[in-house]
Amino acid sequence: MLQKYHFPVPFSYWILLLIFNSTTIIAEPDKRTAGTAVSLDEEIQVLKQDVLALNRELFILEEELLYPSSTQVAVFLSLDVGEFFTLDSVQLKLNDKVVSNYLYTQREVEALHQGGIQRLYMGNLKAGKHELVAIFTGKGPNGREYRRGASHVTNKSMGARFIELKIVDNDSSEQPDFSIREWE
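Above: the chain's sequence. Below: its structure in token form.
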């Protein structure tokens, strides 16, 4: 059974406390370093780098605690379209439960057109069969409103599962194709 870990004090509180305490310690003159060429600004920059490194390590630890690799599932979106479909939004359902709704800006769509891949969802699933449904909304051929869905049943086993939603122009039918595939 999955347990939720509750941290009584947010991580950001500890980071701010660390910064506050370190700046008050640095602000007081130290007799040992008074004669050195190390400036206060350089010490603050070093402390900022240490805080950033600590924040990155805490983020990685939090990801490992919340999404262990044995139950992890991640869903990504990629585009290879241009003429037949302009993406506006995606709704993602997992086992008939909406897990993600995303409304795209023009800038985000351009980034996807340039080869970007977006992580739509990351969560935990127990082993077994699960149904994934993606509903795509946008402008289709001739500028008409377009809403289309794609579904996929995955058999989750132990280990991480990565799923890609892909939208591709189909030149022969002059329509977009919506596919879902699992990465090996």
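The longest strand covers residues 128-139.
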